[in-house]
Amino acid sequence: MNDTDTIHPPATDPASPIITMDQVVKRFGEATVLDHLDFQVAKGEKVTIIGPSGSGKSTVLRILMTLETINEGMIYVGGQPLWHEIQNGQPVPAGEAHLRAMRKQMGMVFQQFNLFPHMTVLRNITESPIHVLGLSKDKATRRARKYLELVGMTEHAEKFPSQLSGGQQQRVAIARALAMHPSIMLFDEPTSALDPELVGEVLTVIKRLSEEHDLTMLLVTHEMEFARQFSDRVCFFDKGVIVEQGPPEEIFTEPKVERTREFLKNVV
Ligand code: ADP
Ligand code: MG
């Protein structure tokens, strides 16, 4: 039986996972980057993904954001298949309209901020709510100001990205993602490109978000102390699978698997 035949009806139970990755395989040419990965995230859960470079961490987030396709397996977001849609009772590869609708549930923050350089901070944030969600300019501006306040960037609304520090740019990138009202936020090493003295301000914003909002959050980071405070669960990835996962106090203080111990010995 083909993997894609094992489709389940949309979940309606609020206790069911908001994200389910079921035996997901991702290959780049000859290389198998995700190797029959099973991964679930509960609604509102804060999950940190750790692991060596090349273990597939970014690929997981990029697949959820629909920036990469998958080769095998199924993914469900909010109870609906992400990469498939149902036609005549059969799963078929998702079309662009389905992907667009699914993508709206997720916001992503990248290592390299990725702000639009030719737009002011305010316009960076209002652009997608206006053009993708169809908000009026007024409503999008009010929304943008609300999230600028949340990330402590209110007084920089009229500046261009090049006039801001890396930490400030990343806080704008977070506000921009939030302004789309996603239910899931994906952070891919959001502080790795920052000078050490700017890391704290970005982590503070992420921590505040996790405490004050009912968002589901997936964070890839090497900031282990932060992961310990932030996470409900830590997943250690290696070679495209989850080698070990559990509450942070368990993973960081008494990892059961030798590979996890080796990794943590070298990063902490
Ligand atoms: P991580 O984020 O854990 O460092 P990635 O998910 O970025 O790892 O990458 C996992 C593996 O997939 C790496 O070996 C990487 O070189 C490879 N890879 C990622 N993206 C591509 C791509 N677009 N084309 C070819 N190989 C890729
Ligand atoms: Mg990466």
Summarize the structure.
Residues 19-264 form the ABC transporter domain. With 268 residues, the chain is of the alpha/beta class.
What does this structure look like?
This protein has nine helices and twelve strands. It has helices at 57-64, 96-103, 121-131, 137-150, 166-178, 196-212, 224-230, 248-253, 258-267; strands at residues 19-28, 31-41, 46-50, 72-77, 80-81, 84-87, 90-93, 106-109, 184-188, 216-220, 233-238, 241-246. A hairpin with a 2-residue loop joins strand 6 (84-87) and strand 7. Helix 4 packs across helix 5 (166-178). The structure holds adenosine-5'-diphosphate (ADP) and magnesium ion (MG). Magnesium ion (MG) binds next to helix 1.
Tell me the layout of helices and strands:
Elements: E1 19-28, E2 31-41, E3 46-50, H1 57-64, E4 72-77, E5 80-81, E6 84-87, E7 90-93, H2 96-103, E8 106-109, H3 121-131, H4 137-150, H5 166-178, E9 184-188, H6 196-212, E10 216-220, H7 224-230, E11 233-238, E12 241-246, H8 248-253, H9 258-267
Parallel strand pairs: 3-10, 3-11, 8-9, 9-10
Antiparallel strand pairs: 1-2, 1-4, 4-5, 6-7, 11-12
Helix pairs in contact: 3-4, 3-5, 4-5, 5-6
Bound molecules: adenosine-5'-diphosphate and magnesium ion.
Shape: globular
| Count of alpha and pi helical runs | 9
Strand content: 25-35%
Query: Which spans of ≥5 residues are poorly predicted at pLDDT below 50?
Result: 1-12
Read across the widest sheet, the strand sequence of neighbours is 8-9-10-3-11-12
**Relative helix content:** 25-40%
Main location: membrane
Family: Belongs to the ABC transporter superfamily.
Subcellular location: Cell membrane
Keywords: Amino-acid transport, ATP-binding, Cell membrane, Membrane, Nucleotide-binding, Transport
